[in-house]
Amino acid sequence: MSDAVLQVRELVKHYPVRRGLLRRSVAAVKAVDGVSLTLERGRTLGLVGESGSGKSTLARMLVGIEAPTSGQVLVDGEDVSRLSRAGRKQLRRDVQMVFQDPYTSLNPRMSVGEIVGEPFAIHGIDPAGGRRAAVGELLELVGLDPDHASRYPHQFSGGQRQRVGIARALALRPKVLVCDEPVSALDVSVQGQVINLLEDLQDELGLSYLFVAHDLGVVRHIAHDVAVMYLGRLVEQGPETDVYDTAQHPYTQALLSAVPVPDPAVRLAAGPSTGAPTAQPGLLGGIVLEGDPPSPVDPPSGCPFHTRCWLAPTLPEARADGDGRAVPEVCVTDVPALAPRGAAAAHAVACHFARELVATGVEA
Amino acid sequence: MSDAAASAPPAARTAASSPVAEAWRTLRRRPDTVIAAVVLLFFAVMAAFPRLFTSTSPRTCPIREARTAPQGWGGDHPLGTDALGCDVLATLVHGVRPSLLLAVVVVGISLLIGVTLGLLAGYYLGWVDYLVSRAVEVFLVVPLLLAALLVLSLFKGVDLGAGTFNVILLPAVVLILFGWMPYARYVRASTLEAKNLDYVTAARSLGASDVRIMTRHVLPNAIGTVTALLPTSVAGVISAEAVLSFLGIGVRPPATSWGIQIEQGSQWVLGGAPHILLAPLACLVATVLALVVLGDALRDALDPRLAA
């Protein structure tokens, strides 16, 4: 490992499902089921996946809001769970969170100055020059007028509120910002401004971002590396260009094919897609997945994606199973490991047939 | 919509002012608030200095002057006399102190108990919530009068003295014991709602302690529903005290209260002497209305979202 600021090893979060009079635990929602990640200093890791794939749970475990069921979170090489209470509080300063909804993430009864200054109060820090001055500097850093510190959140627009949320997260000089869909609640024009602010802050302060999103366009713009989650597991991970240009997992390809292309000329030039089963207007050869994601209480055996995989039935190894879907037996019995299967060593994918996929020449 | 930092939010004032100054400015702009404040001040002065308002003693009750009709200002009995011949105005004036004191003490302490328990139950859930919720249910199902009789028998023969506090001690104990539950339930419900909001999660991710989260983030946003309950609770306490007096554990003679007056006056409404009821009732209604208006204004003034 070169310079990992945040590492996650086999992180698991199961929520027990309790039933009956005695509240016995009868099952578990496997929200995050063994995820390993590495975030390098000064870089941005984009974490994508559909709703319910466990992105937000993972993010919440990283900032300490949720306790992992098992696994390790290492900040600068130190295992968070092995530290004392005080040590954990100290370490928590290094990893801060930017929330999705700027309308609910700011206390409506506190002024912006109080909100941004609260981290100092919680940790008993008195910055040089006093807290007021420090709050003013933070507001300036995120592009707000320091004189607005006495105003209340409702007096700001959505984009300005999100800047306040970023200023609060920056107060303790963290090394890592975990951004949980930080722009999905904002207007498109404002999204760009906030993304640019985050990029400027990264250059200025040397921050590392874990950027959780379902908007692949935004992730492509900001992320250096991309990890794709499905049903609590990582299915593909690698540098942004590799994942976007040569996606190897059928799920990643389906996600990418669903990104709308705003230019009709580009869509026409691309023509009908080659390997994908269905094409939709407005998309570049859209791959439409069938059905809903399976329940995380009882995920499918083997590869969690095999129940919806569009590639599996087309493979020569496919055998019809009980449900009438033809999939290769190995997809049902064996969990594919997340491992490099192509030319690039940094580009890992969890699919038994990633090679065949590359060979068929499907490109999103 | 521009997100530029320099563009001022429309509702914002340029001058930076403290929330207290802001609250005061909003209060002053509403005339009904001023009237309500004057009414409450009037009764407060009456409670502190009853002799400013009447020179007659509420304890001189010549029976032959019973149920005299109101004579207006200048007469011996401006508001008439009651069934025993006691001056209604004098009784009213001297009854302010125990009535208002009882209301403030009972509502204040019940609020404190209820809010604390409701907050703890809603925040921690688990066994804390179990204990608090069961306690609420137990106290809710015991009828007030039965409980009052129990307390009465417990304190039978105990001389509590005659000071203002001693006079209201027994009714206060009973009414607090059986009055804190609504606050606990309301606060528990709104705590459950508030504690999962993003700004509470944000505070937790910053490492804030439970006490800080509860007092700075959850409670200020959960207390709203309870403040609407307060003015009517005051009225409830004052009239409940009358019922307790009937059992002999309310404000005890020779001290008087509005509750006792209302209780006694209600027997003569159709007997040709409605003034015995109407005088204390008018005072009670005026107090409660003033509290409602003031409570509303205070809530609006302290909520930055509603400050114009």
Automatic annotation (TrEMBL), chain A:
The keyword ATP-binding applies. Keywords: ATP-binding, Nucleotide-binding, Transport. GO terms for molecular function: ATP binding; ATP hydrolysis activity. It holds the Pfam family oligo_HPY. PROSITE patterns: ABC_TRANSPORTER_1, ABC_TRANSPORTER_2. GO terms for biological process: peptide transport; transmembrane transport. Residues 6-256 form the ABC transporter domain. NCBIfam families: oligo_HPY. Belongs to the ABC transporter superfamily. This is ABC transporter ATP-binding protein. It comes from Promicromonospora citrea. The lineage of its organism: Bacteria, Bacillati, Actinomycetota, Actinomycetes, Micrococcales.
Automatic annotation (TrEMBL), chain B:
InterPro entries: BP-dependent_transpt_permease (IPR050366), MetI-like (IPR000515), MetI-like_sf (IPR035906), OppC_N (IPR025966). The chain crosses the membrane at residues 34-53, 100-126, 138-155, 161-180, 222-249, 276-298. GO terms for biological process: transmembrane transport. GO terms for cellular component: plasma membrane. Residues 96-295 form the ABC transmembrane type-1 domain. It comes from the Bacteria. Its main location: membrane. It is a multi-pass membrane protein. Belongs to the binding-protein-dependent transport system permease family. This is ABC transmembrane type-1 domain-containing protein.
